[in-house]
Every structure is written in structure tokens, then in C-alpha cells.
Amino acid sequence: MNKMEFMDKMNRDLAPLPEHERNELLDRCEECFRIGQEQGKTEEEIVAELDSPSSQPEARYEPAYAGSPYGGAPYNNPVPPPPQAWSAPAPGRQHEPDRDVPRFIGVGILLLFLNLLLAIPVFAALIAAFVSVCIAALTTMLAPLALVAETSLYGEFTNAKLMMSLGITGIGMILADVAFLFGKGLFRAIRAYAGWNYKTLKGRT
To answer: Which domain covers residue 56, as residue numbers?
Structure first.
């Protein structure tokens, strides 16, 4: 008897079983044929082993069908189950070291005094200077509008006043460029200093 004939016979003998139980046993048969062929056995040799009553006792599968209305396994020579797949044990969680609390508190206090006594006053002065430059740039760039307002109110317009307003506007444009570069550098400095504070306070964990 070859594999196809054996599987047909199994399918007929297992017909009274529910479909999922029948498919499970048929899958086990397929697994046995695959393992036997890998070991160099012929289909007839594998069938002979599966048909041998001493290879797998019938009682091994009877508990699975004990509650079945068919009264036990319908096939006298049940097929051995496929080998269980090995799974590696789940890796354990590594223990995380505790934070150095005294160091954390000490560094935090030192940074607090450093910021209050030095960093905050320095950055406050730089921010005030940046705001002053921005106001000066905005004010000088509005010189032509001031000339227009003066002319409309008092009616006094001269070429000297026009040239002066244009010159002041040019100075305002220069101050605007200076304010932009100064503000950009100040923002980078504040961000870098804040990052240094964070890294120093965090330290090693």
C-alpha cells in the first residue's frame, strides 16, 4: 500500500469524526510520511510502520474521543503526532540600576544657583539688548512715515529732510540685519545652554 492508498483509507475510516479532528489526524499522517522520507524510507515501509499495532498503542488517542458519540477512535492504528516545535525561552528583563538620588539632588541644587546667579542675568541682559536693537531698527525704518506726517501737519518739506529720512531708513535696515543675526545666535546659545543643563542634571542613570 502506498501513501495515496493509505491516505484514502484513513479518510474513509475517519469519516464519522468531526472535520477538525479528522483533519488533525490526516495532518499527522502527512508529517509521518515527510519524516520517514527524510530518513530514506519508502512509502510502503512508512505505511507498514503506521499499520503496525506495536508502533503506537490505540489507547494513546482514545482519551481524545472518549466523549465522542462514536465510542472511541474509529481507526485501530492511530498516527503518532508530529514532533513538538522547540521554542526558545523568553529572555528575562534586565535589571535597571537605580538612579543616583543624592547626586541628582546635589547637581540640581548647583545648577539652580548657577542659573540664578549667572546664567539668568546674562541671558536676560542679552534678551533686553536684542529687544532694544529690534525697537531701534523698527523706529529708524519708519523715518519716511514720520517725514510724511510732519509735512502733512506743518507743511514744511525740504530735500535735506528727505535725504535724512532715507539715511535713517538705511541705518534701520542695517540694524534689522544685526537684530536678525543677534537673535539667531541668542536662540542657539539658549538652546545649547538648556541642553547642557539637561545632560548635566541627568548624568548617568
So the answer is: 3-65
